Fold each of these.
Amino acid sequence: MSAKNRVARWVRPDIRGLTAYPVPDASGLIKLDAMENPWVWPEGLRDAWAAQVRALDVNRYPDPQARTLTQRIREHDAIPDRYRVLLGNGSDEIIQMLALALGGSGHGVLAPEPSFVMYRMIATFCGMPYHGVPLCAESFALDEPAMVRAIEEHEPAIVYIAVPNNPTGNLMAGDAIERVIRAAPGLVVVDEAYTAFASRAHLELLDRHDNLLIMRTLSKLGLAGLRVGYLVGAPAWLDELEKVRLPYNVNVLSQAAAAFALENHSVLAEQTARIVAERARLAGALSEMPLTVWPSEANFLLVRPESADALQVHAGLRDAGILVKCLHGAHPLLSNCLRLTIGKPAENDALLEALAELLR
Ligand SMILES: *Cc1c(COP(=O)(O)O)cnc(C)c1O
């Protein structure tokens, strides 16, 4: 028996049919593909952080409750005591915990599309049915009647709504979100990965809906390498999810580094403000080019070349040393689209210059 034969016999066919999440090699390139904060910490702060790390005892398991970090997150986000906070190794792990806890009944995961691909991928890993409901073409608004119909038909265990949405960058209308929450028999998770860049957040909706949880992450704030995401909501839900959380899911270094970063949150806030200002500058300059530029409340812009081929523009940018995300083929509504993460001013200038050349 070869390993191949054993794999064919024992590994689930739906897993064998998948391809692993592709992460392109970005070495040597200006990296504008993954919604990372382009700024690092100032030198003095790095030294203070290194001193803290030096004092950590990595021979011991982490604090399973991550009490210090949880407290810093509570303070930073002004989370009321009546809600619980559950930490994950990135929000990706929280999406997995939700599938572990709510999957198995035959009821699945439902989300507007195009949106964050992990909702579908993790549903598949966990054997949960997945239902995508197209957003309104061009505006990318929630198609409320279609969402409500799909919810009534499928009775999903979990509905995800990313607000602002990735990869479209828009905020969904608040009243539409609330009507979808009311229509859902199961849990609704509003994913606020980009809330630091947005004009509206939804924590206060928790008081009005007993089937709502809010998911956030430190990734887009400038700490993607630490892998810290969190879920906020009523203890009744989070006490159950806590049971499927691996006891030491957030490691010692991440707990300490994230707590330290939040204690110095003015640095992150200043970086975020710079990204928002650059977003406006970049959107303005791009709107002068033969491109459709969608309004964004996140740290990226979705664009569509009017006459050039997005695949060729993507390749041309790469030749010019700039990595962006090509979304052509990811969803019909994204045909010929590119997603540009906001970088530092000089990186954005390089992007504008290369685009002007390619779209001439
Ligand atoms: C980037 C992103 C996340 C992030 O995940 P982490 O695992 O916390 O890095 C979650 N949701 C959306 C919509 C995202 O775009």
Amino acid sequence: MTNVAKRLKIVRDDLALAEQKSGRERGSVTLVAVSKTHSQATVSEAIEAGQTVFGENRVQEAMAKWPDLKAKYENVELHLIGPLQSNKCANAVALFDVIETIDREKIAREISREIAKQGVDPRLFVQVNTGAEPQKAGVAVEETIEFVRLCEQEYDLNISGLMCIPPFGEDPGPHFDRLAELASACGLGELSMGMSGDYATAIEHGATQVRIGSAIFGERQVFRAE
Ligand SMILES: *Cc1c(COP(=O)(O)O)cnc(C)c1O
């Protein structure tokens, strides 16, 4: 077994335990393996070990890495989990199966236009800045309900759920609760929350998908991009 396969198994077992502890059905939480900064060879190890869902935070990096992998492995699902610029929306819609970071009207408009133009149907999440951090992407908590409504009604987007990245070093629980409350208020069923350090907590608080990088692939050589 490769190192990646070993770590993947540990994470999968731990995730199953967290599901069980939280009274969630086994296999009900989607594991998004965050492969940013890691090579095609490393990603291939995870795919060979049975992982099918992956996350990348940069459109440019994903475009260099994923077309080959998608051609070789047909059933992989790719999530965009990093901030989106309007000039990257066409490429993002073409490459990603799930876009988790819709956070402003300009992006909603561009994504909507590209979906119509390309005739594709990616699953979509709205990112919420639960900690009101100025450097972080995401719609403000108090604007979330209105923004989701705008996406749905004005831009005809089919929003599946909400995503957040709690402030580093803070207790993530209240942030996960806030996201869950907002999703419920918007009538959305999916919650993308929880990373290597806090995914068990996120599952307790209702996460339907967790985004895990370093616990699977090891430490990255660069600082975490937010
Ligand atoms: C990098 C990243 C992750 C994974 O972080 P780890 O701590 O390595 O698990 C999750 N979500 C987002 C948005 C990221 O950018």
